[in-house]
Each structure stands twice: as C-alpha cells, then as structure tokens.
Amino acid sequence: MLQDPPYVFADQPCVLQDPPYVCRRYNARMTELAAATGSVIASAAYADGRRIGDVALDDISDVIGRPDTFVWIGLYEPNEPLLRKIQEEFRLHDLAIEDALSAHQRPKVERYDNSIFVVLRTAQIEDPKPGKPCDVRYGEVHMFVGRNFIITVRHGYATSFTSVRTRAEATPELLKQGPAFVLYVVMDFIVDQYFPIVDALEEELEALEHRVFTQPFSRRTTTQIYKLKRDLISLRRVVSPVIELSARLIRFEDEDMIPAQTRPYFRDVYDHTLRISDMIDSVRDLLGTALEAHLSLVSVSQNEDTRRLAAWAAIFAVPTAIAGIYGMNFNYMPELRWRFGYPLVLAGIIGICWLLYVRFKQAKWL
Prior knowledge:
The chain is built from eleven helices and seven strands. The chain is of the alpha+beta class. The protein starts with 19 loop residues before the first helix and ends with a helix. The N terminus is likely disordered.
C-alpha cells in the first residue's frame, strides 16, 4: 500500500472491506482538506486494473515508473504553482498548462509530445424546479492523458467525479486498459449529463407551446421563448465539438495513448453526442415553429381587434351622421316640425345600428 500523505486525499478513500470507522475517518479528513486546499481532490495509483493506494505528488515519479501502473489525479480550479508542479512531474506542454489555467476553452483534443490534451464543457441545471425556466450553468474539464497518467482539472460548474471513479474501479478488467479507459469514462459521464438538460428544455418548450395556444399574448412568453432559444444555442456550442472530438479519438493511431481495444468505447460517446445533437436540433426547430405561431397569433389578435374597432366605428357612425345632419341650424328642414319626426328618426337610428350589429356578428367581426 502506498503511503497516504497528509495533504492528498481521494474521492472514495475507503473500500467495502474497510471497517466503518476507517471510512468515517477518511471522509472527515477529505472534508477538512478540501476546505484547506481546494485543489487536489484525488491522487491515486492503479495497477492491473485495481487501486493500490493514494500517492503524494512528490512520489509520482517513482510510482509511474512501475510497469502496468498509472496514476489518476483530480484537481479542482488549481492555482498556478500547483499546475507548474504537475507540469514538472509529467513534462506537460506549456500551451496546455496555459489553457488549463485560463479555462474558457472550446471543446477540443490536441496532441503533444508525451500526452494528449482534451477539453470538454460540462453543463448542469442549477436548482431545478418544476414549472420554472431552466437555469443552465456551464463549466470546463481539462484532461491530460499520457501512457501512465491521467490528470483531470475541473473549472466552474463541474460535477464531482466521485461516481466516475467508483464506476471505473468497479470494472477492473476494463480499467486494465489504463488512462484511455478513464478518459472514456469521464467523457461518457459528461456527455450523459447533457441528456437531462435537453429533456428539461423539451418540457419547457411544451409548457411554452401550451401557453402560446391557450393564453392571450404576453410579453413574458416572448421573453421566455428567446431565452430558451439562447439556451439551446449555448448547449449546441458545447455539444457539437464533442462529435468531432470523439470521432478523432476513435481514429487515434498512437497505441501508447489510446489502445486499440479502447477506441470502440469512444464510438459510444460519439453515438450519444450525435443523439443529443439531433435532440437539440429537433427542439430548436419546434421552438422556431412555436415562435412563428406566437407571432402569427399576435398578428391575428391585432387584426381581430382592428376589425372589432372598425365594426363599432361603423355602427356609431350612423347616429353620429344623422344627429349631425339634424343638428344644422336651418329654418327649412324636412320633418323638422313634424310631430312624429323625433321618434321616427330615433327608431331609424336604432334599426340601422341593430342591422349593422347583426351583419357584423354574422361576419364574426364582433
């Protein structure tokens, strides 16, 4: 068992065979050190597909020199001195280290002398609540993959890899493939996190469609449609590069980095990413249709209001015209001194207005 240094801890420090007090002790130490360092989340060595223990950063050179042994180091928003120490231990390229420091990178895969550098964007919904618009938050994961090491660097809203490490350690026969299999497990985990977001956006779209066709025009509905469209575009920018990235890993020719038996697993990531991309395109098309329907209904509503106003204006034009004619100050006007003139004119006004009202009602203008 490798020595467990006081400042390095693991996501899952105990195994099923350990007594409960050991797990509690390690978990308490993990929480304490997480608050103190905030950078090194895990540093463990694996041999023959099984975890052999935690390893200090200063001892990494001795560990990776052993045959069939690799290390998996997890970092969260590391500072520059720590990354420079990692660079010195693993002889990483300066450009890759600069990208890992600055973050805000596009998903990509780059090959350097003794490693490949992979960048993925993470996405998750912050505080999901039924019936409320989704608030999607994004983070980044940078991975340095070599023949006998993998280093994961998380930035921003990036979910913990505790379950990823547990999943990988639960399949030692596959973990024998080395860091390339860990790369697949991490990529698969990140890509699978996109599915709930797309499902939530689909539910939000359904709610918007129901509101468009059942409720009167609202500026809030238009605002939410544009917000949903913006979220889809942002998610599309995150997902689309992963298609090319995973396809490149499938065709990777360096056996030291990506063994031939590991490459088919990246096809699974490729298929999942294509499926997510198709789902996003479908939701985006439906959203465009919903927006067009919403604007069309607004135009129809405005036309109906215009026709209604025109109908009432025509009806009120009749008494206005008659009253205007008989309001002129002339001495000689027909029926001016007739006894039944006023009731007859009043009845005529009411009759014409009623006739116009019935006709407009039949024409569905009122």
